[in-house]
């Protein structure tokens, strides 16, 4: 075996988080926010990401309380729902992604929108008090904001708004941050994505590092 | 509906890729490599990623030929295997992730290695001529390199080596690049991850944008 390397998973996490805390500028975060931010930086492999992370006041507490109360996690993409580390969840919470459910494609055509946006219509029975995690599609985040304009739409407990990319990602996250219909966390600008979103969920689910 | 936004998925892709081509420095890539790099930048939401992308000569052709020949895609994480867009695959290729198969946890303990590394032992029957995609665990990439030190180990057709993070990611990718046991693609340094890896697979699978 010519290649030798660290093979102890716990040691890898410990060293990684120590490097992030030595290099990143985390001073403006509360202790709860700092744990979430560190895990997001870890998933991105990118010190500097912290400059783009925004938490609204009480976000971590609201999101964590939702999970402790057994509420589901609603994800816009399978790469998000698959990444959630189930043993970290405090109440064996349901992790739901409706993107590939029957009827979503037809609904998207009727709505003249993306499948990612249409899939959120199937969230309505689960939405009350849930933790929402949007880590892929700007259209999903925009559609959620439009759904929440209706006072009869159930309110989630908290929203992780981290869609990624070049068209609508920045704009949808800016819109979420301006509206703040519920406590939320965003990564400003183009950066975001499923790995960063999953990292935020996993950090909220358990303080264990 | 107070928020209006681009809802046409094809238009979103078109605008995104045009922005990337206007902003990124893609001149050193061949046309085939350029398409892969553009999709990787898209997934990361990060112009500048291209400076860290390396393709060995013939990588795209080798990887594409493997898929056209019906060989499987072997992934180190479910976030990678779930992200592959099945309709883009030229031969309805199998997409395999062995991480959660029975016995992996015990094997990892016996090997004194991570589950991500141990899971690769279950790749052996599928490895010959396959497209390997490592988008999460440095230990998986290091273990693959050690497996390939054995001349009796079957050879994949090509390797996407994009583990992410702060411990072993850079080192494992540097080791792959130095050894080049088969044609390969890496993202140098700490950056990488499942989204970038999936983007490379999806671009190799089909030239359609």
Automatic annotation (TrEMBL), chains A, B:
All copies of domain Cobalamin biosynthesis precorrin-8X methylmutase CobH/CbiC, residue ranges: 12-206
Protein name (database record): Precorrin-8X methylmutase
GO molecular function, one term: precorrin-8X methylmutase activity
Single GO biological process annotation from the record: cobalamin biosynthetic process
SUPFAM superfamilies on file: Precorrin-8X methylmutase CbiC/CobH (SSF63965)
UniProt keyword list: Cobalamin biosynthesis, Isomerase
Xref: Pfam families: CbiC
Similarity comment text for this entry: Belongs to the CobH/CbiC family.
This protein's pathway: Cofactor biosynthesis; adenosylcobalamin biosynthesis
Biological source species: Citreimonas salinaria
